[in-house]
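Now for our specimen.

. . .
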Amino acid sequence: MARKKSTKNSNTQKEKTTTVLFNKGFWKRNLLPASILFFLAIGLYAYSTTFDYVLDDQIVLTNNNFTKKGFDGIHDIMTKESFIGRFGEQKNLVIGARYRPLSIVTFAIEYEFFGLNTVVSHAINVLLYALLGLLLFRIFSLFFPNQENKSWFLSLPFLAALLFVVHPVHTEVVANVKGRDEIMTLLGALGTLYCTFKFVATKNYIFYFLSACTFFLALLSKENALTFLAVIPLSLYFFTKTSIKNIVSSLVPLIIAAVAYLWIRYLVIGYFLSSDGAPITDIMNNPFYGLSSSEKFATIFYTLGLYIKLLFFPHPLTHDYYPFQIPVIGWNDIRAIVPLIFHIGLGIIALIGLKKKTILSYGIIVYLATLSIVSNVPFTVGTFMNERFLFMPTIGSCLILAWLLVEKLPNFLKKNYSKNQEVTSWIGLGVLGIFAVGFIFKTIERVPDWKNRMTLNLSGASASPNSARANCFLGTAIFEEEYKPSNDNAQKKVLIKEVAYFIDRALEIHPNYGSALIMHSGVVVEEYKYDNNLQKLLDEFYSILIRKSNVPFIGEYLAYLSNRADQQQLANFAYKTGYQFFGETKKDYNNAIKYLNYGLQAAPNNRTLLQSMGNIYQLMGDQQKANTYFSRIR
């Protein structure tokens, strides 16, 4: 009898849990708050449907050969590393390469039906973001089912979702078409959480299967969905009374999906973190290269402190945190020490609240867990930091902020200052409203920065004046968008000086920055067209080549000059560059021959160049070719 009674009680409890969490008519009962969230998201980002493609959109869409095949490109997208469609081959540009095919598949489908249509691309991003706000509202309502008894505008699920929807750090994800991978990843991860809750509540194995499917799709969008292997069991622990056994059981399909994804990723890319164990040496893709461990982790904790600031005071905002907008610092710098102490404190608070299942503990753990994979702590991710890396973590911070202001603050005021619950609740709501309104205005201010290449780079250089990349990109944008189309020589002279300023600034920050050196070669050629100062041009070419030997444009222009400029000056440059630098100093005989040949095109009988060419071939062990050049000396 006791066993039957126990079973009956268990079934009753299960039915109660199911009724509370998944009672029918949720959206009908919450039509007004849901509509506010949905249309607020649409309203904040509707303007972005008039924007161009910018930044990394070229990698995933505009210059991606697989995407532009439409349906025919989907097989290549799914079976090849994500940069191949843009570069034609797998490049070891960043640690771990990239395999994020699902959002790129959506771009291929778009292209099949609409071609390169910016309105459609941006509209899809906005719609997905609005749907994400609704899904987050539903998830928070699962966490706090008792909040349905409150007025909707005082309920924690609505207010936490509201803060998420209006948070300014999300502008990069929504207003940049490429950011769709972030939105789709979070949609899939939250969908997995919902299916897992549904399975635990109902034991319906359809949701067991669906949780694996949605998680796999989330991972195909972006690998940071892996952090939900921690978030989902944590959510079950905090917000249900299910057993540890059931929590572990609910993880099985997710682990299977994760293993399947990682295995496919390995088969496609060929490795997990590195193809040969060699480090990425370009600091624009590995900003910690060459730093000591002490400098690396001090700088990382500095960025972690900046992330905390952006959660609650998102200003200024920028898409560019490349070297050296984020300065390299050591542990003797308070900017590293304070964030370290703060994060230790967060960890302690989270652990203390774990047993009591406090909202503060949950929010902290969600924030730290979802940020961990992009924090540069386990492995470097190609940049010091990025605002889009906060897209998932803001779930935790928005929940904490809403909880503090609509739960803790009113209780504190009621206990210490006023017994009127209604008054204290409105005070808390008022403070939250200040945050929400501030977030909305900042989002409205920030969104237009993504309108086109020029507006984005102007805002980037303004907010990130110490970034070599931001300065180089702005100089390049001015050159491409304003200088080249202009037919006004007076205006062009002014513009080329402006371009030179930003390119020189980029090289001042990072003297060996390849993209800036290439742009610098173009700038000095344009300046030569106005001042005809050949020696200045050649001196600039030399300063570029000693830092970056492979700049094809320089060779092309030297060939162009061979019959149009002073032969002796070109010969002197060829000797200095080809023989003295590449030949004697670098022992780079192929480049030595290349630049000596440029000189011989201009001055085919120059004795110094012929002797130098013979010497180079002699050093290479090719005496026959050496004698050919020696014989030409008269």
